[in-house]
């Protein structure tokens, strides 16, 4: 088999990078594919895994162990098809740019050498390539994407518009991700762990008060609220926080009535209002609804 040292182009398919019958198995070595003692930038080479250090700029922090085992078994049986990407930092020493999941799975499969595309890159280019490669794969959770965006802005000295151009996203999308990092840590963990979606998080961002954010977050989890229902709850909370007009409305509800409002809001997943008419406790309970479906849901909770 011919040595794997020819130049390759980024825009070409896998067939232009590897011979069709080339696969890496635990028994594959550099002797099977030709001399790889002097890998050159821009080429595909088989490199010993022990010579490859992980990417210190890797934005991804969570790797699904089950998925890694599945990929490892596939590599063990079928071989590794897609090369990883590395840069050479010294003689026989390399640093991973992208493909950490493939590298980890190959190690689990018992492979000692792995096909790698060798590129020339400085630290900033390493960071940028790693971040963009991960973001474009769309397999990061929203918090990891947000942290990646923040790192690109801070460490690559990019403005939001420039960042959007690099990752093919408009500025509003970039801004929405960055705003997630202003949410309380417990909510960020919930986003990372998949307890709530990006849609839920965007609704929570619009709640200025941290205590209210945590209240809505817990409601979403406890009652399995859809994004639409979460948006309704947030909107009602915002209405409740607006200054009220009219007779006797200027004064704050005391603690007892505020507790009743919060408990009712929790029950109906919407902000309930207690409208007090006078000092003798006369008033009304107002339960707003956004649609016929929302009304039906509330009536069902009332056993109507």
From TrEMBL:
Gene Ontology annotations for the cellular component aspect, listed alphabetically: chromosome
GO biological process per UniProt: chromosome segregation
GO MF annotations in UniProt: DNA binding
Protein name from the UniProt record: ParB family chromosome partitioning protein
Source organism of this protein record: Sphingobacterium alimentarium
InterPro entries referenced in this protein's UniProt entry, alphabetically: Chromosome_partition/occlusion, HTH_ParB/Spo0J, ParB/RepB/Spo0J, ParB/Sulfiredoxin_sf, ParB_dimer_C, ParB_N
Name of one Pfam family that matches: HTH_ParB
Superkingdom classification of source: Bacteria
Family assignment from sequence similarity: Belongs to the ParB family.
């Amino acid at each position: 088999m011919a040595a794997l040292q020819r130049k390759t182009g980024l825009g070409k398919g896998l067939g232009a990078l590897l011979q069709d019958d080339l696969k890496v198995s635990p028994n594959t070595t550099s002797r099977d594919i030709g001399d790889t003692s002097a890998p050159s930038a821009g080429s595909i080479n088989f490199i010993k895994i022990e010579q490859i250090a992980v990417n210190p700029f890797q934005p991804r922090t969570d790797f699904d162990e089950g998925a890694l085992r599945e990929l490892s078994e596939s590599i063990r049986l079928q071989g590794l098809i897609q090369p990883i990407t590395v840069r050479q930092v010294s003689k026989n020493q390399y640093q991973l740019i992208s493909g950490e999941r493939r590298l980890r799975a190959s190690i689990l499969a018992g492979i000692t050498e792995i096909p790698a595309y060798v590129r020339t890159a400085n630290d900033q280019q390493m960071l940028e390539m790693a971040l963009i490669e991960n973001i474009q794969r769309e397999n990061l959770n929203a918090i990891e994407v947000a942290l990646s965006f923040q790192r690109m802005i801070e460490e690559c000295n990019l403005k939001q518009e420039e960042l959007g151009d690099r990752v093919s996203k408009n500025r509003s999308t970039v801004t929405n991700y960055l705003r997630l990092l202003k949410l309380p840590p417990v909510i960020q963990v919930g986003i990372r762990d998949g307890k709530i979606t990006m849609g839920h998080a965007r609704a929570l961002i619009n709640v200025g008060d941290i205590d209210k954010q945590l209240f809505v977050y817990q409601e979403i989890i406890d009652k399995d609220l859809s994004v639409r229902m979460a948006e309704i709850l947030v909107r009602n909370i915002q209405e409740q926080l607006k200054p009220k007009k009219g007779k006797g409305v200027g004064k704050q509800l005391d603690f007892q009535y505020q507790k009743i409002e919060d408990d009712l809001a929790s029950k109906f997943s919407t902000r309930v209002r207690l409208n007090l008419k006078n000092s003798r406790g006369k008033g009304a309970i107002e339960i707003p609804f956004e649609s016929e479906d929302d009304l039906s849901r509330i009536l069902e909770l009332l056993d109507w």
